[in-house]
Amino acid sequence: MADPSPPPALHATGLRKTFGGFTAVDGVDLTIAPGGSLAVVGESGSGKTTTARMVAGLEEPTAGAVLLGGQEPPYRRARPARRRAFARQVQMVFQDPYASLDRRQRVGDCLAEVLALHTELRGTELRQRVAELLGQVGLDERHAASLPRALSGGQRQRVAIARALAAEPRLLVLDEAVAALDVSVQAQILTLLGRIRERTQVAYLFITHDLGVVRHVCDDVAVMRHGRVVERGPASAVLSAPGHPYTRELLGSVPRRGWKPARRTTPNGA
């Protein structure tokens, strides 16, 4: 008898989140296969980051369910041991790595701390794994001895990615992970993420407002507006033939060669 297929890396159904009388997310379903990649796209206030925080267990849904590899997030009321075990399943990479890194901690020590928390590695094996993680993101022992302030923005984001990978997660949530980088560095990080997914089979949930970066790293896309998913499908199909007016509006705002922003007019033509 053949082994059953593995559970999805992420299976979220009917996610809803309210803050007082405001509904930030309403009825969102998301599924990512093991090793797959999904972009959740929308403008600021669309609910995409709140969705990501529910997936990562940082916010508890008002309604709906999240399963990562068949497991439900423990949320904040759970015991620390269970929350730590779940953290191995999902890790986040944020927009501003400088804010998420300890400014007083050297890069190598940062990675070693995560490994000591989530693995049994110690001594030489731990140091070897730190070197492997740095190499995986294009850094070396010189960077291991550096403080975050001595690194460029792109290098700090590479450290943040290495730190997230140290736990060997099933799912990596990237919340606007390239938004603060200039275009050339964005391209380097997106290429790096593509290579990492090929090697490790970690799944990606890529949160972004920019449809221009989606095609470089994601298989599928879900477009959010006002807390709901208004369009979803393979990235190639959605980007080449968007069906929803809002998706077309987002695509129309992506700068390209010869692109000029549309001129807004007032009733008197000013």
Layout of helices and strands, plus pairs?
Blueprint: E1 10-19, E2 22-32, E3 37-41, H1 48-55, E4 63-67, H2 80-87, E5 90-93, H3 97-100, H4 107-118, H5 123-136, H6 141-144, H7 153-166, E6 171-175, H8 183-200, E7 203-208, E8 220-225, E9 228-234, H9 235-240, H10 245-252
Parallel strand pairs: 3-7, 3-8, 5-6, 6-7
Antiparallel strand pairs: 1-2, 1-4, 8-9
Helix pairs in contact: 4-5, 4-7, 5-7
Description:
This protein is 36% helix and 22% strand. It is α/β, with parallel strands linked by helices and 270 residues long. It has 2 domains: 162 residues, P-loop containing nucleotide triphosphate hydrolases (Rossmann fold, 3-Layer(aba) Sandwich), CATH 3.40.50.300; 69 residues, no CATH class. The strands form 2 sheets. The protein has a 6-stranded mixed sheet with strand order 5-6-7-3-8-9, sandwiched between helices. A 3-stranded antiparallel sheet has the order 2-1-4, covered by helices on one side. Helix 4 crosses helix 5 and helix 5 packs across helix 7. The C terminus is likely disordered.
Short description:
By secondary structure, the protein is of the alpha/beta class.
Structural class: alpha/beta
Q: Tell me the CATH topology of the largest domain.
A: Rossmann fold
| Straight-line distance between termini | 73 Å
Beta-sheet strand percentage? 15-25%
The assigned CATH architecture of the largest domain is: 3-Layer(aba) Sandwich
The largest beta-sheet arranges its strands as 5-6-7-3-8-9
Report the helical percentage: 25-40%
Give the number of domains. 2
* Major sheet description: 6 strands, mixed
Rough shape?
Answer: globular
What's the average pLDDT? 89
The SSE string, one letter per element, is: EEEHEHEHHHHHEHEEEHH
